[in-house]
Design goal:
Keywords: Isomerase, Magnesium, Metal-binding, Phosphoprotein. This protein has 457 residues and is of the alpha/beta class. It contains 15 helices and 20 strands.
């Protein structure tokens, strides 16, 4: 039996790998898993083929006797929040999150609003591959999917009530929001405006071709957004991915800040905002070791986990002792709201923190150590990527290593992570060093190993 689910749902090039036939069968498997009579909320982002895949999934769900509610266009965290708070038994989201525009995907959400655990994904896969589908008789097929156009309203209200509205409104902030021509445009500008913030948007209209930039909010895609922040004198800019579960911030100087740096200053702020919460943060091995350098002196424990938001969310839920959780890619999890990545909630928290600090965002970021960061990827099959990981382990065998997901090598003056992507045929390389020369040396070492494994000279 093969695997359907990667680190974040089922993904593929739409209408080639992710086809309506797959959507129909997976919908049947999901409906069989949840059980007859379950209430399932379905939504999607703006991607091409989204309506087609959603329709196929809904058809599969209905065939199993599930009650389907169509939440239409909505960010992933908005649908997750509605599932959690509105008494649904589960949800299905049609999205490929940050992946390139030709991709789409299917994500399954449990009743608590978190993606189903890995072991439950395996159950769904077993049903899918064995075709052990429940099919209800015709008399139980009398109802269509019911429109449920309330998801975004419920979500926006939920976010706003978690922050100090009056404080933020008193500051007269001006910000730039870049929702990547996708569903973040339906919620983040509303959140900011209801908090009294003047909003300018870049790539703010919905367009499944993503004409402004690719969905992943990385520095090479955010040049126009960063220039806009500086030119209008905004206090910050925020960029989302395709389903708005990530938030990458741009400071008032136009510098794009990675998610682990943002999470570090937010975690520091949350200790003040929530003194009653445990001083423990959960993050993926892809995050910078800077977080330990800053947070440990404050008595905040850092727990390292595999890359993948599901594992972070589920671990936080199981242990019930988190101040917050996060990934370096801009995914931030705020337990008082929900235990999943949430771009809109992260924006609201940043506005509140900035209002409390009463100084420029660039000054706050400048308090963090500045290292030379390199993130890159090499097209490669998963099997070859795993071979590269083993070679890197051997090369750096005399250093501290974390091997729960690829290999993370840690030294006093650098760290590097080499791992196979869970969603694409790629080898991902991330590293930081105190000097530019050291960073480039480390990248050269890993590239040479990768070329040797791939059979290049």
């Amino acid at each position: 039996m093969g695997r359907l689910f990667g680190t974040d749902g089922v993904r593929g090039i739409v209408n080639e790998e992710l086809t309506p036939e797959l959507g129909l069968k997976l919908g049947m498997a999901i409906g069989t898993f949840f059980g007859e009579g379950s209430k399932i909320l379905v939504g999607r982002d703006v991607r091409a083929g989204g309506y087609m895949i959603k329709s196929a999934v809904i058809a599969g769900l209905l065939s199993t006797g599930v009650k389907v509610y169509d939440g239409e266009l909505a960010p992933t965290p908005a649908l997750q929040y509605a599932v959690k708070t509105q008494d649904f038994d589960g949800g299905v989201i049609i999205t490929a999150s940050h992946n390139p525009s030709k991709y789409n995907g299917i994500k399954v959400v449990a009743a608590d609003g978190i993606e189903v655990p890995r072991e439950k994904e395996l159950e769904i896969e077993e049903i899918y591959f064995s075709q052990r589908f429940r099919r209800v008789p015709w008399r139980q097929l009398l109802h269509d999917a019911k429109p449920y156009p309330y998801v975004n309203d419920i979500y926006v209200r939920g976010v706003i009530e978690k922050v100090d509205k009056d404080l933020i409104r008193s500051k007269g902030f001006k910000i730039v929001i870049d929702p990547a021509n996708s569903v973040g445009a339906l919620t983040s500008p509303r959140i900011a405006r209801e908090l009294g913030v003047k909003v300018y948007t870049v790539n703010g209209h919905l367009d499944p071709t993503f004409p402004g930039r690719e969905p992943e909010p990385v520095p090479e895609h955010l040049g126009e957004t960063a220039r806009t922040v500086v030119s209008i004198g905004a206090v910050l800019g925020v960029a989302h991915d395709g389903d708005a579960d990530r938030a990458i911030f741009i400071d008032d100087k136009g510098r794009v800040q990675w998610g682990d740096r943002t999470a570090t200053i937010l975690a520091r702020y949350l200790v003040e905002k929530h003194p009653e919460l445990p001083r423990k943060v959960y993050t993926a091995v892809s995050s910078s070791t800077v977080i330990e350098e800053i947070l440990k002196p404050l008595g905040i424990e850092v727990v390292w986990l595999k890359v993948g938001s599901v594992d972070i969310s589920r671990t936080m839920q199981r242990n019930n002792d988190a101040l917050c959780g996060f990934e370096e890619n801009g995914g931030f999890m705020y337990p008082p709201h929900q235990l999943v990545r949430d771009g809109g909630m992260t924006l609201a928290l940043m506005l509140e923190m900035l209002a409390k600090e009463n100084r420029k965002l660039s000054e706050i970021y400048d308090e963090l150590p500045q290292y030379h960061l390199i993130k890159t990827k090499i097209p490669m099959t998963r099997d070859k990527a795993l071979l590269v990981v083993e070679r890197v382990k051997e090369y750096f065998k005399n250093y501290r290593q974390i091997t729960i997901d690829g290999v993370k090598v840690i030294s006093d003056d650098f760290w590097l992570l080499v791992r196979p992507s869970g969603t694409e045929p790629l080898l991902r390389i991330m590293l930081e060093a105190k000097t530019k020369d050291k960073a480039e040396e480390l990248l050269s070492i890993v590239r040479k190993i990768a070329e040797e494994v791939a059979g290049k000279k």
